[in-house]
Amino acid sequence: DGGITQSPKYLFRKEGQNVTLSCEQNLNHDAMYWYRQDPGQGLRLIYYSQIVNDFQKGDIAEGYSVSREKKESFPLTVTSAQKNPTAFYLCASMGVEGDNEQFFGPGTRLTVL
Amino acid sequence: GESVGLHLPTLSVQEGDNSIINCAYSNSASDYFIWYKQESGKGPQFIIDIRSNMDKRQGQRVTVLLNKTVKHLSLQIAATQPGDSAVYFCAENNQAGTALIFGKGTTLSVSS
Question: Choosing among B21, B42, B47, B87, which should be mutated to test the A contact, i.e. which has the most A CBs within 10 A?
Fold first, then answer.
């Protein structure tokens, strides 16, 4: 089956720790995205990458970092510099040709204890 | 700045009614719009999209209308079912065409 997988589904972190969220896609999409969603809110863009070894900051990049070493993978690290990291994190991918539809993963819920 | 908003945070309808969810956008240069459905604890799912060279597009039980004059987008769901209960987001592409900008969402509740 083609799609986007995120792991883990639930993640707990102590304050001051860095944590990395996984996102993998087998859709052969060039572009990948990370969003943050808070309760009752829309999706806010953290980082995105349109091609391997390149990525751009979104609207709320502070306290986060990413890498894009492989086309299939776009891991997100939530660093200790992120002051309010508890949220639902969504990864998406999109082919750069044709429609701009983004396909989303199932999400990771991060809770800081 | 760029922003996408929705008129109402919640909408309650009876099963079988038609639902209309509205969205206003601010970037008159946007040329692509999309509606997503998000069920609790899950990632958003694509419903329907429309390009700015169209006013209307129909899918299965859903219709998207685009009014570029007033920068308004709507999603119509025919014969709403309990399974349609979810949060619905509209989104537009950003000025560079490299990412989507999402609105805050409308929660649709369908009662039997």
Answer: B42
Nearest to A6 by CA among A21, A28, A27, A16: A21
Test A42 with B89 for CB contact under 8 angstroms. Answer: yes
Q: Does A46 touch chain B (CB under 8 A)?
A: no
CA distance A95 to A3: 12
Is the C-alpha dihedral spanning A83, A77, A5, A74 positive or negative?
positive
Cβ atoms of B17 and B11 within 8 Å: the answer is no
Output Rg (C-alpha) for chain A, integer angstroms: 13
Average confidence (pLDDT) over A60-71 = 97
Q: Which of A39-53, A72-86, B1-15 has the lowest mean pLDDT?
A: B1-15
Of the pLDDT bands very low, low, confident and very high (cuts 50, 70, 90), residue B4 is: low
Identify the residue whose tokens are 């052969």.
A28
